[in-house]
Amino acid sequence: GGLVTPGDGRFTSNIFNLYDTWALNTEDDQSAARSSIAHGEQLFNTLQIPISGVAGINDDVAAGGLVKGGIPMLQGTCGTCHDTPSVGNHSFPTPLNIGTADPSPGNRSVNLGGLDVSYLPEITVCRKDAGTGLPTNDCKTITDLGQALIDGRFDHVGKIKGPILRGLAGRAPYFHNGSASTLMEAVNFYDTRFNLHLSDKDKNDLAAFLRTL
């Protein structure tokens, strides 16, 4: 990760290496808990995620994406976005919308990642014509204006910067709008949003690791 392009090799791909020595296969409860955390850390570093539909990564550079023409799918990991070693924040300047700012599709109560966003207002904003200052037909419907509230850029509507992952256990609820009440709900969001098909053990281990940060 780092700077403009996620995965550009600026940082190590092993974002966290706190629990390598805990990857044990013993039967006592303490060792089992440690093994779960170590496996969760390994998943964070190595789990392959087909990143698609993420505004700020996959869209065209004219819309705030990384490259001209866009990237339909980028094969990444958790560290593609949470790329700062031992901290896990989003170091590169490009803000992203992984789907947490999206409205409920088809009037359902949950968005594409399975989060309940029915309590949030939906806002439709349109790009202004640079010459006339009048709104154009280029519009977005969103539940949060994101970084556009700070810099006024239409291509930043709905996009935010990823947070530091340290201290997660004491910072519920999660995501910028509080739509995930627990770390397991946050893990389930990623599992659903990116079609990861994680096992219950994988999800529990990943959540156990995140709680330790």
Spans of at least 5 consecutive residues with low confidence? 1-5
Alpha carbon gap, first and last residue:
20 Å
Radius of gyration: 18 Å
Largest sheet: 2 strands, antiparallel
Structure overview:
This protein has a domain of 131 residues: Cytochrome Bc1 Complex, Chain D, domain 2 (Orthogonal Bundle). Helix content is 22%, strand content 9%. The chain contains four helices and four strands. The strands form two sheets. The chain has a two-stranded antiparallel ribbon. β3 and β4 form a beta hairpin. The longest helix has 18 residues. The radius of gyration is 18 Å and the shape is elongated. The N terminus is likely disordered.
What is shown here, in short?
With 213 residues, the protein is an alpha+beta fold. The protein is built from four helices and four strands, in the order H-E-E-E-E-H-H-H.
How is the topology of this model organized?
Blueprint: H1 29-46, E1 49-51, E2 74-76, E3 123-128, E4 135-142, H2 148-151, H3 183-193, H4 200-212
Antiparallel strand pairs: 1-2, 3-4
Helix pairs in contact: 1-4, 3-4
Which key phrases capture this entry?
Cytochrome Bc1 Complex, Chain D, domain 2, disordered N terminus, two-stranded antiparallel ribbon, 213 residues, 4 helices
